[in-house]
Specification:
heterodimer; A: alpha/beta; Elongation Factor Tu (Ef-tu), domain 3; Rossmann fold; 2 domains; seven-stranded mixed β-sheet; six-stranded antiparallel beta barrel; 35% strand; B: alpha/beta; TIM Barrel; four-stranded antiparallel β-sheet; 15 strands
Chain lengths: 250, 298
């Protein structure tokens, strides 16, 4: 972890409730996809933890959903503004386990960390399933496609792609006889649970799942985000947010 | 030149800045960031006899100028602390540490102090801080700190076990905190620390339910600073033993204000969670702030 002052270089709206922000500065503490940063906002006591969508040698990209006062204020920030950010938090995904045919499953605001994972898996035969509620919430599909991955979109209302949830899109692939070596996922908890049951328990594919929890500090000091696992208590912010299917207790 | 040293129950510490229990773990997360030997000392995570997971999540909620927590004393238990945490800490921290002890019965407080005091790691411990004020557990914690008789019983149960100073950490969720402080002093407590968090709650407008799984939680952060100052001021006047002031301190100026209220040292809590360097920065800024206000020593 590093505490850095980052300078906003871009802040633009992607969908009615989703924004992209790019920040420049020392981002060397970010080592793996699935890690997050924690942003201090004037007038708010606690920082806002947001997962890393992409990182380069001197820039980090996040995609954030407007959920409350803090994230709403973030939409007003202009390029040039400076932010106090804790960078390189959490464990992130371990891509060494990906194998030849990894599957990435993202839902809604959980999609961003899978972008960096997909980019890092460029050499593999990667399939990405992205789930949204409806067409007007869709973002970043083109960017995933530009990485060379096969991208399958599912919408709950059927306005684009597969009608239904990410698990419905997964079932179609399995019915076609497709085989996957490992999976990576991030999304709302009901989606994670469905993915766990369908992809891990039923189809027998091991994977890594990124969890969300209300955090105090984001770096392991306050024990605010603890969860029980088969390997003992873990802090979502420190030993997480990524847990392996084998250790998860629902 | 200013002298930042203070005497805390017979032990001289380099400065009065002490990260508060529950915001500093057992020191490791912060030792990775800076040399924690710059601190006066720190109070480690509230330790109970048995390992505790604590409350269900969400355990954290934000408030104007502060936060609510309902962690519920998650800790690995005293035996694990002696076996794992303290040997690890010994490698990076070379000052006496404050051992924060929690319990659900007077016997438990006594047993935890006994195990720490009789352990091979005992030399590391400078003070015991007995937490009789946790608002987030049921059947223990704060119930001992809201009644003068029960508070006195806890002091009585632990006082004879150790030669080290025993500091009682008090709850602000009482009608008259000086009564509790005086009861502790009468039974031989060596010091008082206050305030633990103030009980509060918040609702989620979307779900119409409390934000915290525990329903209520403890309020900390700058929002509680004036309340803490007032209670430290009252308590320091009511007892002769040293008082450690805490509650919302986030700058060197706040430290000075707390010392003016009668504290001999201060604990820094929620500030560590927002800025991991907060305690180090306060230690760094303190001499300059003392000079600015014409304070040469405490």
């Amino acid at each position: 972890m590093k505490q850095e002052i980052l300078t906003i270089t871009e802040n633009r709206q992607l969908t009615p409730s989703t924004w992209l922000m790019r920040m420049a500065g020392d981002v060397s503490a970010i080592k793996a996809p699935g890690q997050f940063i924690n942003i201090r906002l004037d007038g708010h006591f606690l920082r806002r933890p947001i997962s890393v969508c992409d990182v380069s040698s001197d820039e980090v990209t996040i995609i954030y959903k407007v959920l409350g006062h803090g994230t709403e204020e973030m939409t007003h920030f202009s390029p040039g503004a400076k932010l106090d950010v804790l960078t390189g938090l959490g464990n992130g995904y371990d891509l060494d386990d990906a194998g030849e045919r990894p599957l990435l499953i993202g839902g809604g605001v959980g999609i961003p960390p899978l972008y960096l994972a997909t980019r890092c898996l460029a050499k593999a035969d990667t399939t990405v399933i992205l789930g949204f509620n409806s067409e007007d919430e869709i973002y970043y599909v083109d960017e995933f496609e530009k990485l060379g991955a096969r991208v399958i979109v599912a919408t709950a209302d059927g306005s684009r792609g597969v009608r239904g949830f990410v698990t419905d899109a997964f079932r179609e692939l399995v019915n076609k006889g497709e085989i996957f070596t490992h999976f990576y996922t991030c999304g709302p908890e009901p989606m994670l649970k469905a993915v766990y049951e369908r992809v891990y328990e039923k189809a027998g594919i091991s994977g890594q799942m990124s969890f969300e929890e209300r955090m105090g500090c984001g770096f392991g000091a306050c024990m605010g985000c603890s969860t029980k696992t088969k390997n003992g208590n873990k802090r979502i912010c420190k030993e997480g947010p990524v847990l392996r299917t084998e250790e998860i207790i629902w | 030149m200013v002298d930042t040293r203070v005497d805390l129950c017979g032990i001289t510490i380099d400065n009065p800045v002490i990260p508060a229990s529950g915001t500093f773990g057992y020191g490791h997360e912060f030792a990775e960031l800076y040399d924690i030997n710059c601190l006066g000392t720190f109070s480690f995570k509230g330790t109970t006899l048995d390992p505790r997971f604590g409350n269900e999540t969400p355990r954290i909620a934000e408030c104007p100028s502060g936060m609510l927590n309902a962690v519920g004393l998650q800790n690995p238990g005293v035996d694990d602390v002696i076996r794992e945490e303290l040997p690890k800490l010994e490698r990076v921290f070379h000052k006496p540490v404050m051992a924060n002890v929690s319990g659900f019965s007077t016997d438990e407080y006594a047993e935890v102090v006994k195990r720490l005091d009789r352990s091979s790691m005992s030399d590391m411990i400078g003070w015991y801080e007995i937490n009789i004020s946790c608002p987030n557990v049921h059947g223990g914690g704060m119930s001992f700190g809201t009644d003068p008789k029960m508070a006195a019983e806890v002091v009585k149960a632990v006082r004879w076990i150790t030669d080290k100073p025993v500091i009682m950490k008090l709850s602000p969720n009482v009608t008259d905190i000086t009564e509790i402080a005086k009861a502790c002093e009468a039974e031989g407590a060596d010091g008082i620390s206050l305030i633990n968090t103030l009980m509060g709650m918040r609702f989620d407008l979307r779900t119409r339910k409390p934000l915290l799984a525990n329903v209520t939680g403890g309020l900390s952060g700058p929002a509680v600073f004036p309340v803490a100052l007032r209670m430290v001021y009252q308590t320091a006047k009511a007892v002769k033993i040293p008082v450690i002031g805490m509650g919302g301190i986030s700058s060197a100026e706040d430290v000075l204000e707390m010392m003016m209220a009668g504290a001999v040292a201060v604990e820094v809590g929620a500030a560590n969670l927002v800025d991991p360097y907060a305690s180090r920065n306060i230690v760094r800024d303190l001499p300059e702030a003392m000079k600015k206000y014409g304070i040469s020593s405490f």
